[in-house]
Amino acid sequence: MSLSVYQASVPVFIRGMTVLAALLDKAEAHAQAAGMDPAELVNARLAPDMYPLSGQIQRASDSAKFAVQRLSQGQAPKFPDDETTLAQLQQRIADTIAYLQSVTAEQLEGAEDRQIVVNFGDFKPEFRGDTYLLSFALPNFYFHVTTAYGILRHAGVKIGKLDFLGPYTPQDGKSQA
Questions:
Q1: Using one digit for the tens of pLDDT, what is the confidence trace for 71-91?
Q2: Contact 109/24 with Cβ under 8 angstroms?
Q3: Of 45, 99, 139, 166, which one has the fewest beta carbons inside 10 Å?
Q4: 3-state secondary structure string, the chain?
Q5: For residue 50, is pLDDT > 70?
Q6: How far, in Å, CA of 4 to CA of 2, rounded?
Q7: C-alpha to C-alpha distance for 158 and 121, rounded to whole angstroms
């Protein structure tokens, strides 16, 4: 069995973004039940030098869309990173998913062999497409998804490992929510 770059990227990023949307639904319910301002959750962080929840969602969104942009040699939408509410973060997630869904498998054909350069100012690492996806893009994406989960869990939102994993999809391909 061979696995294409498309199969290892777009559906994986969509699944992660969908998990984030479900986590934010639980965060909203938690804030309502606890009588707390949802902005407390949006601004919550695990450590003073880490991005707050909003920044983690923004970075997960950017990681997904820019990875697919680089691999497809297309153009991803730019978002201004100005979300301050759970509803705005949900919209960003929805917009990210919509972009990802617009990318076809054909656009990623040959991506495993493309040269990918990531610009970090003076540091510009170069990757082969498959190495970029597997050793940088996916770990970076899941770092931000995991950190968002950790922030919400630390803030008291009732979520667990199954919330992070999302709906189970058995071999027959029918999702088990």
A1: 999 999 999 999 999 999 999
A2: no
A3: 139
A4: CCCCHHHHHHHHHHHHHHHHHHHHHHHHHHHHHHCCCHHHHHCCCCCCCCCCHHHHHHHHHHHHHHHHHHHHCCCCCCCCCCCCCHHHHHHHHHHHHHHHHHCCHHHHCCHHHCEEECCECCECCEEEHHHHHHHHHHHHHHHHHHHHHHHHHHCCCCCCHHHHHCCECCCCCCCEC
A5: yes
A6: 7
A7: 39
Q: How many domains does the chain have?
A: 1
Residue span of the structural domain in which 92 resides: 5-165
According to DSSP, the β-strands at 126-128 and 115-117 are antiparallel
Whether residue 77 is contained in a domain is answered as yes
Is pLDDT at 164 greater than 90 in this prediction?
A: yes
User: Around Cβ 23, how many Cβ atoms within 10 Å?
Assistant: 24
Query: How many C-beta atoms surround the C-beta of residue 20 within 10 A?
Result: 28
Burial grade of 151 (CB within 10 A; 0-12, 13-18, 19 or more): buried
The sign of the dihedral angle between the CA atoms of 47, 48, 49, 51 is: positive
Q: Which amino acid is at 160?
A: G
CATH number for 107: 1.20.120.450
109 φ/ψ angles, rounded to the nearest 5 degrees: -60, 130
Mean pLDDT calculated for residue range 87-105: 98
Cβ–Cβ < 8 Å for 97, 20: no
Task: Give me 36's structure tokens.
Answer: 């707390």
